[in-house]
TrEMBL record, chains A, B:
Domain PurM-like N-terminal: 44-150
GO biological process: thiamine biosynthetic process
Lineage top rank: taxon: Archaea
Database matches in CDD domains: PurM-like3 (cd02192)
InterPro entries, per the entry: Methan_mark_2 (IPR017668), PurM-like_C_dom (IPR010918), PurM-like_C_sf (IPR036676), PurM-like_N (IPR016188), PurM-like_N_sf (IPR036921), ThiL-like (IPR006283), UCP036540_AIR (IPR011413)
An example molecular function term from Gene Ontology annotations: thiamine-phosphate kinase activity
Pfam families with a match to the protein in the record: AIRS (PF00586), AIRS_C (PF02769)
Protein name: Methanogenesis marker 2 protein
Annotated ranges, domain PurM-like C-terminal: 164-305
Length: 329, 329
């Protein structure tokens, strides 16, 4: 196991490098929350949050399904469009309410497969797909899904509130398989009963309502360390991670494991006194969890393995999204 | 002026014919609202509605911006993505809360233009774009926007509750121009101050809260009569429309006028005793409004002009969306 090789493979992974244009897009929308004055979180988190009164926040997220996934397996793309959106709301500590989609298809067969995947996703996760828009005549196939959820302002989990001294918990459901048509998807839900899958989403609501976290994100396209990197960037802090404390399925190479998109996986930060309860709640729903590191003041992400310590990201130089997030408290 | 030519041009307009695949897509999702049991309106309306307690409904809508519009004018596509979504919430009698977008671009220049259009739309309509997703590397340019709003269950405006004997009010802001790069867009907002544009959205909330309507939709891609057709289909009724009662800008051919997508335009149904108040509210914000017809039991849309009476749609045979809507009351 070679730390340099692991670091290289993570740093150059397209799941991370393609996040860069976020900065450019967001900079064009600088003043957006002046118009209503109710925005609580805008760009840079798993979902955005808007005050709707009575201490409640409306959560909205949107995910475009990566074209590669649509090409590799339209059914799985449809299924994943539900999975990723529901996880975005879970990662904020919220309750998912409903989804809408925009489906662009060039042929009926793709349309049918995507919709079957969506249907199975809806039944697995228990969140309705209530509407949308169909482009029946596009020269390409694409799927965008948006989800809305609700959360209390005093319970929301953000990406931007990790503080030096916080412990980093990484939780990943190890009971899965690499999806045959898209091996970077760590499929942890297809073979599971809806009850357990829904409980994995629900546990984040419970952890949030108990205020056990300082920050958190669901592990998505950038993989475990890329997702952590985005959290660090949003919080304007750094971290040290002990590689071997990251929960991992035996028999999969680290280079692959760290780039996988798990069906149920979270990067969370907690005060040291809350780590035990948090881990115990996650493990009650089959999400294997460890304290894998600590938040530090220095704006770097260090990875350690045995006696080695290397820099994965230097946030003074390396930008993932290029934006920092701030809640409007 | 030839009624047959007008009917032919409306019937064969792509803005209407491309709604057909909705049926096929929806049929694949038949059972979606079984999963949460909270869905109030799913497919077939301008926005979907989900119960969130205390008599409140969450509204969610999604619109994919037509590829043609993206090609013709990316700035205008960005601007319109805000306009169409805000109108979807207005058409339900709701308050728009916030939007998210998924932007797929193949080049930076298009990205910049789309985002500038979004920014100007946000400033005009006063609804924040709070987040989203960027695909920086797609072989095509596409923009999907989703909006969330709130409305009381006892005030929501649906498409499916028009009843025989109701009057049909058509309201269109005549102070506009055909957009130079997309002449089927009747641009009524670019040149107006945000105050008036926002008041045109707000007036629908007031009309809804006063319970003046039985049904309503905003006029969108299918044009005035195509939109009315979708409302009739959703309500399982028919109508007679007097062509010359439809508010119209002088100097534009009927064949064009009826296919235009206006920046502020609504097709509404009311009990006869409420028409006057409804029209007076719409006209207070510069939306010229007339009683242009009546809902009938027979499932046809008839158009009359002088002594002529012709059938535009026979809903026993012609389907626009192919679905009927039912609120889960």
């Amino acid at each position: 196991m070679d730390l340099d090789s692991i670091i290289e493979s993570v740093k150059n992974y397209e799941g991370i490098t393609r996040k860069k244009p976020i900065k450019e897009v967001v900079s064009l929308l600088n003043d957006v929350d002046k118009v209503s004055g109710k925005t609580y979180i805008s760009f840079g988190d798993d979902a955005s949050a808007i005050r709707i009164g009575d201490g409640k926040l409306l959560l909205i997220a949107a995910d475009g399904i990566w074209g590669r996934l649509m090409e590799a397996d339209p059914y799985w793309a449809g299924y994943c469009s539900v999975l990723v959106n529901v996880n975005d709301i879970a990662a904020m500590g919220g309750t998912p309410i409903g989804m809408v989609n925009v489906l662009s298809v060039k042929d009926k067969e793709t349309c049918r497969k995507v919709m079957e995947g969506i249907k199975d996703g809806v039944e697995k996760f228990g969140v309705p797909m209530v509407g949308g828009h169909v482009h029946p005549d596009t020269p390409y196939n694409a799927l965008d899904v948006s989800i809305t959820g609700l959360v209390s302002e005093d319970a929301i989990i953000t990406s931007c509130d990790a503080k030096p001294g916080d412990k980093i918990i990484i939780g990943i459901d190890l009971d899965g398989r690499q999806h045959p048509s898209f091996p970077l998807n760590w499929d942890t839900t297809s073979h599971k009963k809806p009850e357990l899958v829904r409980a994995q989403i629900k546990i984040m609501e419970e952890i949030a309502s108990k205020k056990l976290l300082t920050a958190g994100k669901d592990i998505s396209n950038p993989g475990t360390l890329g997702t952590l990197g985005m959290l660090l960037e949003a919080s304007n802090v750094g971290a040290t991670i002990e590689l071997e404390k990251i929960p991992k399925k035996k028999g999969i190479k680290w280079e692959d494991w760290l780039r996988l998109y798990p069906g149920a996986g979270f990067v969370l930060t907690t005060k040291p006194e809350n780590t035990r309860e948090c881990i115990s709640l996650l493990e009650s729903v089959n999400i294997t969890s460890n304290v894998a590191g600590e938040i530090i003041n220095e704006k770097k992400l260090y990875i350690t393995l045995d006696d080695e310590k290397k820099t994965l990201f230097d946030f003074e130089k390396d930008l993932i999204m290029g934006i920092q997030e701030e809640t409007q408290k």
